[in-house]
Design brief:
With 80 residues, this protein is mainly alpha-helical. The protein is 36% helix and 5% strand.
């Protein structure tokens, strides 16, 4: 899949990956998804953000995650 909506310009937002050359970084889109679980509310606040923008931001961020397995000590309990 081509991530044609993810742009990077050294003169805009310090070269951070942005959505369609807007002043809206991929990082901010991910933060917005956590802040606005209701997509309708997100669209009201950021009408320039399209579904394809969100999808490509998620794909972009997921490509940076490592699939390594981290062993936890015995008795360690994660709280979610």
């Amino acid at each position: 899949m081509s991530l044609d909506r993810i742009t990077s310009n050294p003169k805009r937002m310090n070269g951070q990956p942005c959505i369609r050359n807007l002043r809206l970084t991929v990082r901010r889109v991910i933060e917005l998804l956590a802040t606005y679980p209701d997509r309708q509310e997100l669209r009201q606040e950021f009408p320039e953000l399209e579904d394809e923008d969100i999808q490509q931001a998620l794909i972009f961020v997921a490509s940076y995650l490592d699939d390594r397995i981290v062993e936890l000590p015995d008795g360690y309990e994660a709280v979610a």
